[in-house]
Design goal:
This protein is α/β, with parallel strands linked by helices. Helices cover about 40% and strands about 15% of the residues. It has one domain: Aldehyde Dehydrogenase, Chain A, domain 1 (3-Layer(aba) Sandwich), CATH 3.40.605.10.
Length: about 250
């Protein structure tokens, strides 16, 4: 975000104003940039990195590499990292809300409410992370016992919408991380939810690199018909990790 826009909005912590993508625990530049505008005025208030297909592929590979380490952590350790994320969001509540007003257009009171709402998901799953309990199931056979074990499935690919950029990210990411799944998140490019990503990055010290990965990307230019790819470069990564996905938003009609 441009310094002048941040100053006018009363944002104090410049460390929250990231214009790069979080990949493998590091903030990287893309092959280009995407403009972030104030929806009330149309003014450009900043830019974010636009990742190429190759960079998006590396984000996938980095999250996949983190899987074994993150899934093997003790539940209490994952809980502590999530708890720290919650604390950082709470400490930065006012700045995070003011960034949301600029990027997304909500009134300040509603933005504060969303930051509280977003942080509550992280707090909830920080506690749930401690309880990966085994469930007993009644068997249909005599002299038999059935147990249900819950295990991490792999990388969680998350697509979040423009209207709840923080809450939808934390609702998805905190649940996946608590369960032992690394995260590959794709926020709405022009409402990039940089606030939650920055707080997550700060809380992730001691966690495996790429435990949380964020990859806004440029829409590829192609005349070929196919599924909509707005704001997301197609990855040519050969990695096909065990994974799941969560999509909140809408797609244009064909």
């Amino acid at each position: 975000m441009h310094a002048a826009a941040a100053a006018r909005a009363g944002i104090e912590d410049a460390g929250l104003l990231r214009d790069r993508a979080l990949v493998a625990g590091a903030w990287i530049a893309g092959t280009g940039t995407l403009a972030v505008t104030d929806p009330a005025t149309g003014e450009e208030i900043g830019t974010i990195a636009a990742l190429s297909g190759e960079q998006s592929g590396e984000a996938v590979a980095a999250a996949d590499r983190a899987f074994a380490d993150w899934a093997g952590r003790l539940p209490q350790e994952r809980s502590a990292i999530l708890r720290r994320w919650f604390e950082l969001m709470t400490e930065a509540r006012e700045d995070l809300a003011r960034i949301m007003v600029l990027e997304q257009g909500k009134p300040l009171s509603e933005a504060r409410g969303e930051i509280d709402y977003a942080a509550s998901f992280v707090e909830f799953y920080a506690e749930e992370a401690k309880r990966p309990n085994i469930e007993g199931v009644t068997s249909h056979l005599p002299d038999a016992e059935v147990e249900l074990w819950l295990e991490p499935a792999g990388v969680a690919a998350l697509v979040t919408p423009w209207n709840f950029p923080s809450a939808m990210l934390t609702r998805k990411a905190a649940a996946a991380l608590a369960a032992g799944c690394p995260v590959l998140a794709h926020p709405r490019p022009r409402r990039p939810s940089r606030r939650s990503r920055s707080a997550c990055s700060r809380s992730a010290r001691g966690s495996p690199r790429a435990c949380s990965t964020s990859s806004p990307a440029r829409r590829p230019r192609s005349s070929r018909p196919g599924p909509p790819t707005r704001g997301c470069a197609r990855s040519r990564s050969p990695v096909r990790p065990r994974s799941g996905g969560s999509f909140t938003g809408s797609r244009p009609r064909r």
